[in-house]
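Duplicate of #3305? Posting structure anyway:
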């Protein structure tokens, strides 16, 4: 069955639509395949990275990168102030008030440091800190006041200090003054894990569905041509 010149533009347009739809479904299948791979990666045990300086992974006034979260960092400086963060939950599911200090870093800027659950005095002088870097909290856990944080988020304090603040916060593992470690009850948190919604086989099933749809889109034009050809032959 020949195609007339009048039908040619519509046929080309239909072919382009088929190719675009097919490419879209194939791309969606690969996207779901990537998600399945990410889900498998998250099931692997967390591998600790070497301790590095805070300024190697974070810059005051800029958002944390994904790679910087969970990094064990070290830095030094002087505490400017101390706050209470209520209704915080540790790795064991225990809720309590956390003591959070704002420390002016020697290299510039200031950062929130989660110090303890007990009401400890703010140390004076230069303090050396080692701890894990976490992303800021986004949900309020309590009301905000001059001595209380509704969530652990430097954005709440930006207007109160001249220094640029580092994004996120550090969960202190140790604090030392002149080489002597402060004897404080420390908090424990598991490394933050990015979440991938769903289950592994759910993502694989979507891969199959998207690629089957791509095959259907490719098959339909040939099926329609075959039906028309059969009708044409019967008519003759």
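Output from current build:
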């Amino acid at each position: 069955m020949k195609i007339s010149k009048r039908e040619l533009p519509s046929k080309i347009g239909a072919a382009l639509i088929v190719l675009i739809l097919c490419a879209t479904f194939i791309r969606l299948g690969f996207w779901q395949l990537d998600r399945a791979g990410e889900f498998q990666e998250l099931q692997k045990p967390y591998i600790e990275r070497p301790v590095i300086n805070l300024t190697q992974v974070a810059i005051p006034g800029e958002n944390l990168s994904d790679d910087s979260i969970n990094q064990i960092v070290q830095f030094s400086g002087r505490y400017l102030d101390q706050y209470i963060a209520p209704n915080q939950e540790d790795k064991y599911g225990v809720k309590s008030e956390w003591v959070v200090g704002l420390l002016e870093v020697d290299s510039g800027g200031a950062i929130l440091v989660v110090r303890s659950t007990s009401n400890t005095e703010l140390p004076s002088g230069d303090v050396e800190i080692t701890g894990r870097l976490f992303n800021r909290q986004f949900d309020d856990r309590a009301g905000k006041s001059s001595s209380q944080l509704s969530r652990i988020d430097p954005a709440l304090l930006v207007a109160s200090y001249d220094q640029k603040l580092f994004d996120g916060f550090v969960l202190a593992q140790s604090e030392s003054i002149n080489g002597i470690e402060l004897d404080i009850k420390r908090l424990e948190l598991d490394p933050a894990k990015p979440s991938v919604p769903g289950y592994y086989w759910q993502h694989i099933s979507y891969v199959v569905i998207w690629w089957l749809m791509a095959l259907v889109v490719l098959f339909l034009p040939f099926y329609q041509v075959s039906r028309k050809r059969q009708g044409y032959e019967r008519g003759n």
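Confirmed duplicate; merging threads. The chain has a mean pLDDT of 85. The radius of gyration is 29 Å.
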